[in-house]
């Protein structure tokens, strides 16, 4: 894994900020760590392009994941979001259930443990069988754009969760801003020009997902096929993931099927290419499988060992719902996938995975 040196040490050793974004010395299966300030506050076009190239190279390599540091979202903001998320999940079950997720076209509301079954399958019988034998051990709260004329967010009462709504809407806007900048970097790294995706992602058709993984006997998570979240790919363009310190996220190598931990690194956001970005780029950028399991540090032990509570916050970035995702003009003459709208693709995937 590539780690950046502190600025003073880097300066002492004669290293430039551009060096912090290079992938040259990273192993082929590593998840690279990239200083995004070298794009956001580039001194010149060359530095911006170098960082953009590093991001695209990270998505092209086997794992399709990167870490971004110096991404512009303050630690105080992230801590506050995690605190408000924790307050929400601590509410009584009946209060959370009153905000129940109802429709894959909306993708808004509370999802209780075991209701979603992450999967790559589209066979309802297969998914139901897996849900019965090895359900995902997590609960979530899904939030979309709040001004949508058709689909409304489901907010807890202010008295039940003070400032929850305001905090999450502010964070939604913040993550959208980061998403726009990452998409500009991807466009530049793909040789399309920074503004290529601008009119394809400006409607903020994203999902902010708060996740809580309750304590669970570690032995249960060691059973075959069992996980806090089963292997799956994400659906949209990219995902921004903010983790706590517990760990457990793993990425599957597409060729060896070996899983590699995406260990929490303080001050970073994990970013992965998702299905629609991979389709845009005709499969050159990888939308790889991920899962959440018992953290690597939790070795199997005596009966009663418990894997601790884990919390994370995911921002699933999507193209505009009416955008047609098709092979980009500089990605070869033969498209691997038929064109599809964002809404059609995501609604189908969601309908497959929820009860």
Automatic annotation (TrEMBL):
<feature type="region of interest" description="Disordered">
    <location>
        <begin position="114"/>
        <end position="135"/>
    </location>
</feature>
<dbReference type="Pfam" id="PF03171">
    <property type="entry name" value="2OG-FeII_Oxy"/>
</dbReference>
<dbReference type="GO" id="GO:0046872">
    <property type="term" value="F:metal ion binding"/>
</dbReference>
<protein>
    <submittedName>
        <fullName>Clavaminate synthase-like protein</fullName>
    </submittedName>
</protein>
<dbReference type="InterPro" id="IPR026992">
    <property type="entry name" value="DIOX_N"/>
</dbReference>
<dbReference type="InterPro" id="IPR005123">
    <property type="entry name" value="Oxoglu/Fe-dep_dioxygenase_dom"/>
</dbReference>
<dbReference type="Pfam" id="PF14226">
    <property type="entry name" value="DIOX_N"/>
</dbReference>
<keyword id="KW-0560">Oxidoreductase</keyword>
<dbReference type="InterPro" id="IPR027443">
    <property type="entry name" value="IPNS-like_sf"/>
</dbReference>
<dbReference type="InterPro" id="IPR050231">
    <property type="entry name" value="Iron_ascorbate_oxido_reductase"/>
</dbReference>
<keyword id="KW-0408">Iron</keyword>
<keyword id="KW-0479">Metal-binding</keyword>
<dbReference type="GO" id="GO:0016491">
    <property type="term" value="F:oxidoreductase activity"/>
</dbReference>
<feature type="domain" description="Fe2OG dioxygenase">
    <location>
        <begin position="204"/>
        <end position="319"/>
    </location>
</feature>
<comment type="similarity">
    <text>Belongs to the iron/ascorbate-dependent oxidoreductase family.</text>
</comment>
<dbReference type="InterPro" id="IPR044861">
    <property type="entry name" value="IPNS-like_FE2OG_OXY"/>
</dbReference>
């Amino acid at each position: 894994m590539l780690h950046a040196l502190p600025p003073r040490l880097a300066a002492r050793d004669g290293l430039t900020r551009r060096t912090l974004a290079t992938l040259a010395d990273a192993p082929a299966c590593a998840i690279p760590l990239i200083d995004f300030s070298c794009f956001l506050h580039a001194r010149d076009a060359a530095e911006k392009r170098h960082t953009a190239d590093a991001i695209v190279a990270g998505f092209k390599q086997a794992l399709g994941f990167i870490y971004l540091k110096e991404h512009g979202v303050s630690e105080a903001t992230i801590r506050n979001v995690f605190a408000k998320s924790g307050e929400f999940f601590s509410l009584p079950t009946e209060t959370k259930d009153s905000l129940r997720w109802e429709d894959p076209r909306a993708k808004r509301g509370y999802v209780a443990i075991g209701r979603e079954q992450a999967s790559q399958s589209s066979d309802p019988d297969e998914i139901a069988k897996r849900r019965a034998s090895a359900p995902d051990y997590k609960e979530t709260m899904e939030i979309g754009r709040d001004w949508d004329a058709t689909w409304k967010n489901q907010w807890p009462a202010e008295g039940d969760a003070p400032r929850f709504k305001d905090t999450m809407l502010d964070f939604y806007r913040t993550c959208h801003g980061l998403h726009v900048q990452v998409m500009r970097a991807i466009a530049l790294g793909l040789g399309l020009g920074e503004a290529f995706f601008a009119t394809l992602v400006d409607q903020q058709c994203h999902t902010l997902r708060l996740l809580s993984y309750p304590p669970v006997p570690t032995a249960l998570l060691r059973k075959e096929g069992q996980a806090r979240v089963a292997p799956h790919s994400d659906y949209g363009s990219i995902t921004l993931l903010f983790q706590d310190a517990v760990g457990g996220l793993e990425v599957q190598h597409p060729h060896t099927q070996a899983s590699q931990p995406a260990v929490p690194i303080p001050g970073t956001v994990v970013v992965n290419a998702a299905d629609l970005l991979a389709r845009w780029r005709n499969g050159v950028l990888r939308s790889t499988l991920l899962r959440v399991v018992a953290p690597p540090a939790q070795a199997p032990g005596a009966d009663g060992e418990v894997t601790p509570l884990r919390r994370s916050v995911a921002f699933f970035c999507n193209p505009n719902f009416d955008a047609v995702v098709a092979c980009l003009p500089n990605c070869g003459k033969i498209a691997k996938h038929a064109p599809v709208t964002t809404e059609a693709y995501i609604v189908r995937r969601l309908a497959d995975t929820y009860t």
